[in-house]
Amino acid sequence: MTVRRSVVVGCGGYLPEKVLTNDELAQRLDTSDEWIRDRSGITQRYIAAEGEMTSDLGTAAARDALSAAGFTAADIGLIVVATSTPDETFPATATVVQAKLGADKAMAFDVQAVCSGFVYALATADNFIKSGQVDSALVIGAETFSRILDWQDRGTCVLFGDGAGALVLKAESGAGTTADRGVLSTHLHSDGRLHDLLYVDGGPSSTGEVGFLRMEGKEVFRHAVVKMAEVTVEALEANDLSASDIDWFVPHQANKRIIDGTAKKLGISGDKVVVTIESHANTSAASIPLALWVATQDQRIKRDDLVLIEALGGGMTWGSGLVRW
Length: 325
Ligand code: ACO
What we know:
By secondary structure, the chain is an alpha/beta fold. The chain folds into two domains: about 5-175, Peroxisomal Thiolase, Chain A, domain 1, CATH 3.40.47; about 180-325, Thiolase/Chalcone synthase (Peroxisomal Thiolase, Chain A, domain 1, 3-Layer(aba) Sandwich). It is built from ten helices and 13 strands. The chain has helices at about 20-30, 35-40, 55-70, 95-100, 115-130, 155, 215-240, 255-265, 275-280, 285-295; strands at about 5-15, 20, 45, 80, 105-110, 135-145, 160-175, 180-190, 200, 215, 250, 305-315, 315-325. The strands form four sheets. The protein has a five-stranded mixed sheet with strand order 1-7-6-4-5, with helices on both faces. A four-stranded mixed sheet has the order 8-13-12-11, with helices on both faces. A hairpin with a 3-residue loop joins strand 12 (about 305-315) and strand 13. The protein is globular, with a radius of gyration of 18 Å. The two termini are about 20 Å apart. Acetyl coenzyme *A binds near residues 39, 155, 158 and 159.
């Protein structure tokens, strides 16, 4: 019996030109490089230029991923963009990316699960491929979080940045063992009762304005370590694998302390953890594909490696995925 899987055939990324360091932030806000680094592990973030939109970042990352895959835009059957910072309320940023790429044969839509967005988008695309509805997909995480930050709120604005990352997935048939390439499984969860811990205080149907990100940092932290550890164990158990089988752990980059806490809970050693928070900060749905991009560029993640991803975000939403690269 052959099993249809979504195999990663290309990975791309894009970061805006402008770098904003902690020291620069400290010049206009009551904060310090030391506080930000100690509490979060962040030293700088990238900020989109005026007029540079989420679709521009996503398109650049998608082009990079297509080129890595040796694909043209015309080869793509599905585009899913994970974002909480769309160019416009509608249409979906994915359709804007589609037009910019010239991916005329694709269907395109957005997925909104905040920092878990990329895991949700990967799960969605994987299911479209597994069901046979499409043979290829672009899964993009793209964000301009700088546009929804209250730059007077030192408790939140120091933590986030802008960027985009993308994967090209292609349907391949194999024996379906955990040694075969492709997405082995994804695991998604939500709990809408936790809305108040992390949300944006605006929107078309409430205030009519875009609003700003609001967060109960300590509570988010508490949920993050527990839930992300649980959902990674769920992924390992579903595939009859253990933490020692993991080649690379690529968590959502929210806070270095959350990443270290989760890796410790799982018994994954630090040298197997991909960390980009120091230079990217938290780019929400873009953080995992950007980290995958960095680790494929520097040759850490290689073909056939077992990669574990996980994230938690506003909603709350959380999820994990195991990929044989
Ligand atoms: N600079 C200096 N001082 C600050 C700053 C800042 N940028 N921000 C807050 N403070 C102050 C607070 O006012 C407080 O002062 P007080 O004691 O006089 O009241 C003090 O520092 C401690 O504040 P806490 O909020 O208790 O600091 P904490 O140790 O919890 O760290 C942080 C805050 C970094 C936000 C942490 O709670 C955290 O990382 N939480 C997880 C949130 C997260 O990662 N969210 C991302 C989105 S969700 C996700 O992606 C998983």
